[in-house]
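Recap quiz, item 2
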Amino acid sequence: MKTTILSIVMSLFTVVIFAQDKNKKMTFDVNGKCGMCKERIEEAALNVKGVKYASWDIPTHQLAVIMDERKTDPMKIKTALVAVGHDTKELKATEEAYESVHPCCRYREDNSDDGADH
Amino acid sequence: MKKIIIAFAFTILPWLAFSQEKVEGTVVEAGGANALGLAGANVYWMDSQIGVVTNIDGKFSIPYKKEYNKLIISYVGYESDTLTVNTPKVVKHGLKPSNELDEVVVQQERDNIQKTYFSPQNTVTVNSAELLKAACCNLAESFETNPAIDVNLSDGLTGTKQIQMLGLTSPYLMITQENIPMVRGASQAYGLTFTPGTWIESIQITKGAGSVVNGYESISGQINTELVKPLTDSSVFINGYGNQNGRYELNTHFNKKLSEKWSTGLYIHGNKRTQKEDDNGDGFLDAPLADQINVMNRWQYQDAEKGWVSFFNVRFLNDEKQVGQVGFNPDTDRVDNNRRMFSQAEALASGEAELPILSEAEVWGSEINTRRFDTSLKLGYVFPELPFQSFGFQTAYSLHKQDSYFGYRTYDIDHESIYTNLLFNSIIGDTRNKFKTGLTFAYDGYDEMVTATDYSREDRSVGAFFEYSYENLEKVSLTAGLRVDNHNRLGTFVTPRFHIRYTPWEKGSLRGSFGRGKRAANIFAENQQLFASGREIKILNSGGDVYGLDPEDAWNYGVSFLQGFNFLNRKGDFTVDYYITDFKNQVVVDWENSQEVLFYNLEGSSTAKSFQVEVNYELLPRLNIRTAYKNYDITTDYQSGSLQKPLQAQHLFFANLEYQTKAKDNGSQWKFDYTLHRVGEKRLPDTSSNPIAYQLAATSSPYDQMNAQITKVFSNTFEVYVGGENLSNVQQDNPVLGADDPFGPNFDTTIIYAPIMGRMFYGGFRIKI
């Protein structure tokens, strides 16, 4: 009996390993093309409560975030990104949201950074 | 037994399930021992949904399960590879470039003077390319092509250039070297000439209130100099310079990367003038005989993985100047102090100085010898997991010894200084809200002898600061800082500083700032030109703690507007700014009676108002023009009434043209530069109490000064330049007043309103390897 209790306690212990990280670093794909997109994407991510740092890299389309897992999760951030018109791997922006981006940022038509021209 | 086994299995199972079974590793470019990691490469298990992307350093970590054994690594432009992995382990894999393309280097042309559209502070960055436009010898001469700063001669003898911002001289400017306060205290007069031009990597000029991080002393602005770094400077750099007036310079840099993390650099500067120049025939040298040796050694440590960066500097300087009459021989002609009737101190006390009884044979001369030792250490740590959080620690020690005499007056000052600053940067919530906080400790020991009077003192201060900044790259950003300091002579005081930036439309930037500054004036060190005159020194004691005077205290307010534009498809920008410095207390230096120089605390008001309009435009491809108009209104209540600052032009116009031919593949090109300074009339200090022969007009006449330079770049490693200064040959007729009787009461070298040297040509070369 003792051992059973012990084993249960032990197995419980291991589950607690999934602690929530105050400064969780993550990267995910976000579609966009230029400096204006970068501003919009980072702004949207930072507006999610619990996101401390957001940096979107134009050539690789990678958004690096540092977030407080107790306050937010990746899906919340992605929801905020599609709301301002930027596609992610799991979520796609609605046509309406996509139309709201600046005409020069229409990444679905042409994905190259032409930021130098505007 | 069975129970035990079951229990054991139970306990071990979850451990297995949740244990960190991972394959970790690095993806690099194949070939090369210390190849760079490839960031953003895809790493995934064949036939699975599990994939990761390598981070900035090319590192990845992917969960391992027994059912997977083929790990695929792919990256655009490289051949994909499949690794067989049967156990969790660490791998390092090199990818081969798939089809090696010819390298294409895309470089954006950077402007030589960069204005920021987003920073709340009105800061311009001057990079080294701009500094090469006028082959400047040292930091003091680096501002000839910059409209934000005015450069004047400080006196008629030493050829020292004095800089001004917003119409206020350099003591009111905080001058820092890599954010450590530099030109202050004993080095105030000549300190800018102790940084050779080739050592400068870039200069940041901030108008108006500075940041609280660097201390409480800045009033009208801040100039920060970044020196070349061992890691990024050329491994060998040699520059030689010579001019018509017999000034020769040699600069050599040697930089070496010792390991992945350590680099070091050795920088040696020497300059010399042995040729006696008396172009205007007044019997006095137009430029000093000079000799300077300046040696610096830098160590740089960088560990990007762990987030550490550090600099360690040591510098030694020896500078000797001789000025005065052409025939002066320091070994035989120095007038002995003891021949004076009584000491300067008694003279000061009785309010009238008896001049020494001299025969006609004496020759007037002066020597200024400075030895200086500096050392500084900077440590920076950026938390590797938190790019927005960092620690900084700076500490600096300097020992400055100046021994000098001017005719029969001796002036010796030793200044020992210790400065430490501890800084912590982080965020509040997210990176749009940042803060900096920290502690400062400073010690200054002055051992100062003016003729026979000892003015030694010690200053100690400790302070804490906090600066909050809000930045969302859109409409608004602001910086609000506060510091509290306790100083043994200035007391306990609070220094607030505030900057805000608003962007009303594209490429527009409206800024406002206000801030306070407080400082103890080192009256002799800052006004050394007074010694080379027959003027009596008088301090009207107001019972203060520094030379019997109260500290200076001022508020600065300013607004500026910057608008970038495109006209005929070429870029330009337009700036207008207006700043007011309002002194609550000031140490007024009163030159209005030509027999004396007076120091007293301000009674009444003293304000400096400065207005500037600047337009920069690319006229034709590679032909840029920069123009500025400046207006100054600097009024102080002197004992003799409210007057404009003497020797200060109220209207100034500046223009600079630069043209470069297209650079060929090997970097060869021609560069042409032309600068015009149109200087309006200046009010001269009152000389009406002098005999007629020694009287000057009430104002000086306006003049134009022009400089030009041509640089021929032969290749990326070799270039030659020739240039001319003061092409219109403007010269002040009488830089030395009373030159016929230098030991007499009317001798004065302090009233300088125009160049002393006429047209002068120079040339030089640069070798970079």
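The longest strand of chain B covers residues 430-450.
Confidence is low (pLDDT under 50) at residues 7-20, 338-346, 350-356 of chain B.
End of item.
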